[in-house]
Write a structure and sequence with these properties.
elongated, mainly alpha
Amino acid sequence: MSATLENIERDALMLPPPERSRLAAKLWDSLSGRQGMEVVMTPALERLLNEGLENLDEAKTTGELRRQ
């Protein structure tokens, strides 16, 4: 059996959702040139994200900040 796009797509759609998600992430990474990279959540990054979420109603877009 040859690996045609149709066969690969059919097999991929039969995977359980977590495995399908993992496959999608690997395919996306292969297109974006980030192969082998992982996002690491450091305590400092987590603190910054939490601070940003606390005042979400006061948040501004990048465009708004640039116009100031």
